[in-house]
Amino acid sequence: EAEVAQSPRYKITEKSQAVAFWCDPISGHATLYWYRQILGQGPELLVQFQDESVVDDSQLPKDRFSAERLKGVDSTLKIQPAELGDSAMYLCASSRTDSGANVLTFGAGSRLTVL
Amino acid sequence: GDSVTQMEGPVTLSEEACLTINCTYTATGYPSLFWYVQYPGEGLQLLLKATKADDKGSNKGFEATYRKETTSFHLEKGSVQVSDSAVYFCALRNEKLTFGTGTRLTIIP
After folding, report:
1. How far apart are CA B46 and CA B96, in angstroms?
2. pLDDT tens across A18-30, in order?
3. Are A57 and A40 in contact (CB under 8 A)?
4. Most buried among A43, A101, B21, B42, by the most CB within 10 A?
């Protein structure tokens, strides 16, 4: 069964450092999403890509977060500088299109701890 | 904006008990509705979905019916197992996928 690949699974960093997460969606999935899940809460959308274009980054803290999907396949989410409040699970998901009926398939996530 | 309210946990049940996790939503138009499950240390997995009113989604013994008149999508299972212990998220999708806060379910033998 096709999977969404994410790395690293776990990352511990000190505040003010830079951190990056990588995601490889299911082959052929045009839409890619980055979510942040704070412990005890539901995931919240940070950014959505359609192919290589950003279609929604309204909840992305752009002063410190950036995301790219240069060739419309894999994607990188970067945080610089990291803050204590960024400790969370970062989930990547993909879907065939952005149609409302399309199911999102999630990766296993990257858990970030900022000390 | 769109929102999902689900039953707060944690919920603890004995094996073979009946389960209901309540979920209600507020949304414009006709969203698709989903239940996702998250096992410890893992990402979210789709459990079931319904795309229009009166549709029933089902999987692994779990069921949920899209009730437009009550704006609800309650998750039910007749007999739970220890392996069902996880966090369950109700979600709706219009332009974007919006999640509830999750309900932690623990099944004791």
Report:
1. 16
2. 999 999 999 999 9
3. no
4. A43
**Beta carbon pairs, A and B, within 8 Å:** 50
For residue B29, give both structure tokens. Answer: 């138009």
pLDDT (tens place) for every residue of chain B, 109 residues total: 899 999 888 999 999 999 999 999 999 888 999 999 999 878 899 999 999 999 999 999 999 999 999 999 999 999 999 999 999 999 999 878 899 999 999 999 9
Nearest CA in chain A to B39: A108
> Measured in Å, how far apart are chain A's first and last C-alpha atoms?
36
Task: Judge residue B35's burial from the number of C-beta atoms within 10 Å of its C-beta, 0-12 exposed, 13-18 middle, 19 or more buried.
Answer: buried
- B100 interfacial to chain A (CB closer than 8 Å): yes
Handedness of CA B26, B28, B29, B32 (dihedral sign): negative
Contact list in B for residue A103 (CB cut-off 8 A) is: 34, 46, 49
> In chain B, positions 67-96, which contact chain A (CB-CB < 8 Å)?
89, 91, 93-96
Task: Check B49 against A43: CB less than 8 A apart.
Answer: no
**What's the pLDDT tens digit per position in A63-94?**
999 999 988 899 999 999 999 999 999 999 99
